[in-house]
């Protein structure tokens, strides 16, 4: 029996921890003496995974800065569904369109950097860094951090099937001999940027006709109101397969499996016209790197799954998985590439 004046070191907070006591008991004794204030001071030094153990414990907001039903939206929803199944993450897609995709991007840039807000970004944002410099409400490379690249689609040069233009060389010769009009889905959009790049590479002069979206531009091409469009591949694919439009080339490095007879721009003598309209994920700057890496690896893992790859192909995309470490330099390179093209072509928006 313990005497009245004996001290039990495992219950007396004033007693030093016994060196022969179990390690767990020593830790409890030490933490008890430290108190809450000291623990707060030590928090930054605790293992990084301790703070992430419960993540995610609420829904993740995946912001798509385009209207519902578009290609970026559909790709984002497929990725969200795959992550829900594989990782048990509740990823909720929210559409915040407007402002040339800047409204949604600015919203994410201002969000808490806790891994719960993602941006579905595209080539448009890489171009917007120059087109809307100082006016977008955010800085793409400073206020957001690259998480992962998922997929990309090429551009496709298309004409009316009744047009005498049958090859890229025909297009160049026609542009040199007469005035040609080229439609696009709007100023500063990927089709417009690709047209500007083509003119820069060839010296050809085409009259740019901007539309409010890809669909009305293709409608006018079918109707003969414009001569050519450097179109988003997924938007014009069905028309080409049905014979409603004729494809001259695709801007990818490899031929399309859906259109194996259509040459690449490199095969057509324009290797500099390779353009990838990519889509990826970004998060607010300041998001902890271990969390960025965790999300990045999970996304890329799902993009590499055969079922996801097949789903992307049906949309007109090709899988282009890149984790954060690779996607960051790639994105910076795309921003710099299009900045020069935009400046050289004097492309203005708004």
From TrEMBL:
Superkingdom to which the source organism belongs: Bacteria
Residue ranges of the region described as Disordered: 1-27
Record PROSITE patterns: TAT (PS51318)
Family that this chain belongs to: Belongs to the UPF0065 (bug) family.
InterPro entries the record matches: BUG, Bug_dom1, TAT_signal
Protein name in UniProt: ABC transporter substrate-binding protein
Cited Pfam families: TctC
């Amino acid at each position: 029996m313990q005497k009245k004046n004996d001290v039990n070191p495992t219950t007396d907070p004033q007693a030093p921890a016994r060196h022969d006591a179990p390690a767990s008991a020593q830790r409890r004794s030490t933490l008890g003496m430290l108190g809450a204030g000291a623990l707060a001071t030590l928090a930054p030094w605790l293992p990084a995974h301790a703070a992430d153990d419960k993540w995610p414990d609420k829904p993740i907001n995946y912001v798509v800065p385009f209207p519902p039903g578009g290609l970026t939206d559909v790709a984002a929803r497929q990725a969200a569904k795959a992550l829900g199944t594989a990782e048990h993450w509740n990823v909720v897609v929210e559409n915040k369109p407007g402002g040339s995709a800047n409204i949604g991007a600015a919203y994410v840039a201002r969000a808490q950097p806790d891994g719960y807000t993602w941006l579905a970004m595209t080539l448009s944002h890489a171009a917007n860094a120059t087109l809307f410099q100082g006016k977008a409400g955010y800085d793409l490379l400073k206020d957001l951090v690259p998480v992962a690249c998922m997929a990309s689609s090429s551009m496709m040069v298309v004409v009316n099937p009744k047009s005498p233009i049958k090859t890229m060389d025909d297009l160049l010769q026609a542009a040199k001999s007469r005035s040609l009009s080229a439609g696009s889905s709007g100023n500063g959009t990927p089709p417009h940027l690709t047209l500007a790049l083509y003119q820069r590479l060839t010296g050809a002069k085409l009259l740019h006709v901007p539309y409010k979206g890809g669909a009305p531009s293709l409608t006018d091409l079918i109707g003969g109101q414009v001569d050519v469009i450097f179109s988003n591949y997924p938007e014009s694919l069905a028309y080409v397969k049905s014979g409603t439009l004729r494809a001259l080339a695709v801007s990818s490095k490899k031929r399309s499996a859906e259109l194996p007879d259509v040459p690449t721009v490199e095969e057509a003598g324009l290797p500099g016209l390779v353009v990838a309209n990519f889509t990826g994920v970004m998060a607010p700057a300041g998001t902890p790197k271990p969390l960025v890496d965790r999300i990045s690896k999970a996304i890329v893992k799902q993009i590499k799954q055969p079922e996801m790859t097949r789903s992307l192909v049906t949309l007109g995309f090709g899988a282009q998985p890149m984790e954060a470490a690779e996607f960051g330099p790639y994105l910076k390179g795309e921003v710099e590439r299009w900045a020069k093209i935009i400046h050289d072509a004097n492309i203005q928006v708004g």
